[in-house]
């Protein structure tokens, strides 16, 4: 059996690895000229943790995990407001979860599968045809390929989804926020190793994160509804120009950053993830967004379960896809619903609402409450 996978991000690489382990031949097609790195830090756990363990990459993922020793919430001026200890952060995550850079998840998966799959960088899909026996694709380099299964793992702006399921606007749910993330060339002196600092004010959030091995990520997230609609990186200077602490340094670093992720925060609400021998995986199918905080885990876990379904059904690809979606869709939709709830209180413009949303965090930084929280999560684990 052979699969063509469009997109060599977390979902695509995980699918290539899992299908290789199921005895499939795979071809990975990636639009970017080379493998990407960086991105923001995520909490990896849930079905992703279990899937990574079954695929044999959990130990290496854990090796690349980073630990946040302190999360400091600051005023717009940079003055310290309150902080969460590393112990409290770890307790709320649970035992089967850890923090890791998105790019490091990709690196681990790439290293595990690179010898077992063909990867064509700088290439994308331009046409799809299928019948009862096979699916055929045309690529941007002029080549054509045939396979038993086509997996569209090409992200929020999926070309596969547009070709087979219809235009992006038919499925896109804009959550009214935009995000910009990039890796700094060096860690600023004002950010101790292993710490994260965060500022929220007037519908904007800024964070500077120490993510291990001397690396640092800068994160800008802000509301785009109403008067704060913005569409270019240059306008971040206007949006964040009144903030202190490390914000000016981060804005200056944007001008020379090698790679910046800059996009709206949107979900994909797709009523069916497969059509014939074409299936969507990861953000192309659901995109739960960073508000839900489960995208990487869902991509890896979803790939693992897809491989398991294909193994169970042998050559019956359609039956495998139907079973896989029925099993996974409730969890994906639950996370999407969480993302929609969170977006209403993320980076509120109203100062009072900001205080109310941060009150539980402030309380958990107080000794007696912190110990109660840690004990609660330890017992739950």
From TrEMBL:
Lineage top rank: taxon: Bacteria
Residues forming coiled coils: none
Lineage of origin: Bacteria, Bacillati, Actinomycetota, Actinomycetes, Streptosporangiales
Keywords: Monooxygenase, Oxidoreductase
Matching InterPro entries: FAD-bd (IPR002938), FAD/NAD-bd_sf (IPR036188), FAD_aromatic-hydroxylase (IPR051704)
Sample GO molecular function, one term: monooxygenase activity
The name this protein goes by in its record: Monooxygenase
Record domain FAD-binding: where: 3-310
PANTHER family assigned: OXIDOREDUCTASE-RELATED, POSSIBLE OXIDOREDUCTASE
